[in-house]
Design a protein that fits this description.
It is built from six helices and no strands. It has helices spanning 9-34, 45-52, 56-77, 82-103, 107-111, 113-139.
Length: 144
């Protein structure tokens, strides 16, 4: 059942935070992909070796995750139902990308368990939340 209620204030707060979160991810993607040499001061050489050794498909998924996330957040701000589809695509990309980062690389041995899995787990939780929230907003009739 759908209604034509207007979104509440929390909706707008979540939509803005979703956009900021995904823009930070996009900046991280651009930096890691196109300006990797700028990361040398921020990460130990062992972690940089892992970054540099990632397969092309991983980088493509990273781009898909953040670009669809940014677009989804923009569609959420525009109250468009297509946000749900884009958040789903972002979530799928994240669900492939993050486990690979955590378990198919040496990041846990290099950085330690807590540092290696904290951010990927947060990214998965946020992506799942944004998808579920957009579905809920669509069901409430907030998205057209």
């Amino acid at each position: 059942m759908t209604t034509t209620n207007k979104p509440n204030a929390l909706y707008w707060i979540i939509a803005v935070i979703a956009l900021l979160w995904n823009l930070m991810g996009l900046l991280r993607f651009i930096t890691a992909t196109f300006m990797a040499d700028t990361l040398t001061d921020d990460y130990p050489s062992e972690i940089l070796e892992i970054f540099n050794g990632m397969p092309t498909w991983y980088t493509v998924l990273f781009g898909v995750a953040v670009i669809t996330g940014v677009l989804a957040a923009l569609f959420l701000l525009l109250k468009k139902r297509f946000a749900v589809v884009l958040f789903l695509l972002s979530l799928i990309a994240v669900l492939i990308q993050m486990p690979y980062w955590m378990f198919a690389t040496d990041i846990i041995e290099v950085a330690g368990m807590a540092e290696a899995i904290t951010m990927p787990i947060i990214v998965i939780i946020v992506a799942l939340f944004l998808y579920m929230y957009s579905k809920s907003a669509a069901k409430k009739g907030w998205l057209s």
